[in-house]
């Protein structure tokens, strides 16, 4: 297969982890006879520095013309610490999602057997966890109108959802559930929020088209507790934008590090694959960030193009690296490897005719 992939590595550790995902994709291309062509483009704080625009037109055009986007992370402390900044890195990512119609973010969460001891949660709680979060990505409070009174003392953010916005992500979530354990949990706050009541109504109506999928509901405050108390009860979690953002970061504790959680954003335009973590500015340039979330995002990219064996090969290589202790410092404080060493080892497990690196 020939694939044109836009690479938007962004800020902080973004370029470091994305380079490892590319290394692994190259190993896949080599082993399975595919051709992956990469085109780099600016996004986030680096794009503001260069063009005063977190999503330059050329970047957007490249993304539209590509078949997939490999995304790193955006964000820089100079903006995080300046709430008055009008041009901000995250605007680049939000605009990209909106422009490409990427209305669903898919975030799988698993407990890796070899890492169970690394999780701050007890083994019997996390063992067997295998859930996926379907988070609505282009609506809700992150995109609603924002106001700040002239004297700067009153602010508001509008949370708005329409029936079609809920329907399209719900259909994807139900279809995913049909291919999994056939259970879908809608996470909302329907006791308080009108938007959540609309979500319940629309999702309940849609569920009639998926009689083989069991639907249940959970308030987000309870869900925040349940994903930590008993994560293996979940199969597919469907939720709105902000709740999904928070719940999925919380779920990273299950796997042992946020540096393991991958995601795919899909919708009407070019699909985008990115780790769920941010730009982790404290680690920039130190070669210590965990590249596995980015590498597993590349596996999701392969799956998106039905390259199932290739994706499984990447996952198997990641599992092997983890079980052989080839992990970064977030997963092992005593014996650890650098970002690029982990990428090298994972790639060497995949590449044909290449000796597995000594480590
Ligand atoms: N999608 C995105 O690009 C995205 C998402 C979240 C935050 N951000 C931005 O990133 C910047 C930093 O935000 P933050 O500190 O809240 O979140 P973050 O995800 O960058 O880092 C939070 C913590 O998670 C851990 N971590 C994150 N990535 C890791 C990795 N690959 N390996 C090992 N440990 C890792 C570190 O302990 C880090 O201190 C901000 O500017 C924020 O706006 C961007």
TrEMBL record:
The record marks 142, 189 as: Important for catalysis. Its cofactor is Mn(2+); Mg(2+). GO terms for cellular component: cytosol. Residues 4-346 form the Isopropylmalate dehydrogenase-like domain. Signal peptide: none annotated. It holds the Pfam family Iso_dh. Transmembrane segments: none annotated. It catalyses: (2R,3S)-3-isopropylmalate + NAD(+) = 4-methyl-2-oxopentanoate + CO2 + NADH. InterPro entries: IsoCit/isopropylmalate_DH_CS, IsoPropMal-DH-like_dom, Isopropylmalate_DH. Catalyzes the oxidation of 3-carboxy-2-hydroxy-4-methylpentanoate (3-isopropylmalate) to 3-carboxy-4-methyl-2-oxopentanoate. The product decarboxylates to 4-methyl-2 oxopentanoate. Belongs to the isocitrate and isopropylmalate dehydrogenases family. LeuB type 1 subfamily. This is 3-isopropylmalate dehydrogenase. It comes from Paucihalobacter ruber.
């Amino acid at each position: 297969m020939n694939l044109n992939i836009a690479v938007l590595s962004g800020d902080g550790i973004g370029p470091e982890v994305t380079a490892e995902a590319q290394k692994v994709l190259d190993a896949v291309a080599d082993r399975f006879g595919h051709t992956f062509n990469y085109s780099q483009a600016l996004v986030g704080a680096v794009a503001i520095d260069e063009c005063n625009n977190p999503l330059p037109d050329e970047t957007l055009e490249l993304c539209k013309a590509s078949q997939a986007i490999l995304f790193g992370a955006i964000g820089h402390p100079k903006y995080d610490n300046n709430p008055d900044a009008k041009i901000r890195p995250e605007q680049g990512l939000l605009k990209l999602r909106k422009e490409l119609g990427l209305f669903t973010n898919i975030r799988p969460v698993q407990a890796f057997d070899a890492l169970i001891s690394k999780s701050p949660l007890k083994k019997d709680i996390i063992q067997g966890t295998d859930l996926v979060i379907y988070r609505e990505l282009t609506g809700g409070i992150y995109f609603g109108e924002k106001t700040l009174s002239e004297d700067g003392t009153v602010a508001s953010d509008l949370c708005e959802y329409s029936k079609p916005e809920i329907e399209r992500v719900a259909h994807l979530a139900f279809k995913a559930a049909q291919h999994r354990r056939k259970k879908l949990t809608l996470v909302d706050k329907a006791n308080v929020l009108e938007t959540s009541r609309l979500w319940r109504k629309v999702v309940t109506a849609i569920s009639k088209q998926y009689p083989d999928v069991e639907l249940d509901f959970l308030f987000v405050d309870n869900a925040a507790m349940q994903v930590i108390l008993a994560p293996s009860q979940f199969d597919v979690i469907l939720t709105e934008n902000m709740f999904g953002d928070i719940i999925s970061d919380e779920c990273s504790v299950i796997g042992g590090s946020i540096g393991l959680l991958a995601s795919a954003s899909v919708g009407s335009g070019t699909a985008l694959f990115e780790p769920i973590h941010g730009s982790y500015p404290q680690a920039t340039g130190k070669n210590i960030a965990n590249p596995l979330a980015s590498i597993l995002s590349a596996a999701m990219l392969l799956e998106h193009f039905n390259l199932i064996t290739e994706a499984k090969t990447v996952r198997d290589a990641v599992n092997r690296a983890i079980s052989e202790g080839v992990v970064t410092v977030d997963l092992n404080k005593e014996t650890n490897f650098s970002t690029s060493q982990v990428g090298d080892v994972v790639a060497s497990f995949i590449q044909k005719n290449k000796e597995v690196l000594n480590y």
